C-alpha cells in the first residue's frame, strides 16, 4: 500500500508514511495493532497535533447553541487545537458535557486524551481501506488455491529456519 492510501486515515504525513512502509498486514487486527504502535510509540507530539489539525471543527457535532460555540472557542484558545472527541453514538449534550469536563485538564493530560480520541478516527478508515482491498483481491481471484511460500521453500533436513529461501510470492493486499 502507498502513503496516499493512508492519507484518508490521518493528516499526519509522518504517520501515513510509517503505515505505508509496514503495510503488508496479515489481518485487520494486525493493521490496527501496528497503527496503535506507530501512533503511541513512534511518532511525536507534533504528529499528533498535525493529525488533530486535519479535522474540521467539532462544532458540527454540537447544536449551534451559543454555549457550545463559546466553549469550543475557549477550549481551542486554551489548548491550541480543536476539541477532539469520537462522537459516534453521543448526543450534542453528552459532547458538551465532556468538553466542559475536559476543559479543566492540564495540557499534558488533555493532549493524551485527544491522542486517544484521534486513534479512534484513524482506525475507522484503516478498517474501510483494508476491507475494500480484501474485497478487491477476492473479486479478482479465479478460485485457484496458492501454496504457502514455505510449502515450496528450498530446504533440507539439516537446515535451520534462517536458511530457508522464499520463492518470493507477494502476499500484499
From TrEMBL:
A Pfam entry, by short name: OHCU_decarbox
Coiled coil: none
Pathway participation: Purine metabolism; urate degradation; (S)-allantoin from urate: step 3/3
Top-level taxonomic group: Eukaryota
Class in the EC hierarchy, top level: lyase
Record keywords, A-Z: Decarboxylase, Lyase, Purine metabolism
Record has DNA damage as a keyword: no
One GO biological process term: purine nucleobase metabolic process
GO cellular component: peroxisome
Occurrences of domain Oxo-4-hydroxy-4-carboxy-5-ureidoimidazoline decarboxylase (ranges): 74-117
Catalysed transformations (reactions): 5-hydroxy-2-oxo-4-ureido-2,5-dihydro-1H-imidazole-5-carboxylate + H(+) = (S)-allantoin + CO2
EC number(s) reported in the record: 4.1.1.97
Single GO molecular function: 2-oxo-4-hydroxy-4-carboxy-5-ureidoimidazoline decarboxylase activity
Matches recorded under PANTHER family: 2-OXO-4-HYDROXY-4-CARBOXY-5-UREIDOIMIDAZOLINE DECARBOXYLASE-RELATED (PTHR43466)
Name of the molecule in the record: 2-oxo-4-hydroxy-4-carboxy-5-ureidoimidazoline decarboxylase
Organism from which the protein derives: Arachis hypogaea
Organism lineage: Eukaryota, Viridiplantae, Streptophyta, Embryophyta, Tracheophyta
Amino acid at each position: 500500500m502507498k502513503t496516499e492510501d493512508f492519507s484518508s486515515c490521518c493528516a499526519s504525513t509522518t504517520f501515513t508514511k510509517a503505515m505505508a512502509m509496514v503495510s503488508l498486514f496479515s489481518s485487520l487486527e494486525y493493521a490496527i495493532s501496528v497503527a496503535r504502535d506507530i501512533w503511541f510509540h513512534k511518532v511525536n507530539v507534533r504528529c499528533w497535533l498535525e493529525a488533530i489539525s486535519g479535522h474540521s471543527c467539532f462544532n458540527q457535532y454540537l447544536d449551534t447553541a451559543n454555549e457550545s460555540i463559546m466553549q469550543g472557542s475557549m477550549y481551542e484558545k486554551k489548548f491550541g487545537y480543536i476539541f477532539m472527541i469520537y462522537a459516534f453514538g453521543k448526543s450534542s449534550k453528552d459532547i458538551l458535557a465532556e468538553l466542559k469536563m475536559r476543559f479543566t485538564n492540564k495540557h499534558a493530560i488533555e493532549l493524551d486524551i485527544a491522542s486517544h480520541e484521534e486513534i479512534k478516527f484513524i482506525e475507522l478508515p484503516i478498517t474501510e481501506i483494508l476491507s475494500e482491498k480484501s474485497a478487491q483481491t477476492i473479486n479478482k481471484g479465479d478460485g485457484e488455491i496458492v501454496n504457502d511460500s514455505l510449502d515450496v521453500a528450498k530446504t533440507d533436513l539439516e537446515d535451520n529456519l534462517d536458511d530457508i529461501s522464499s520463492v518470493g510470492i507477494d502476499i500484499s493486499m
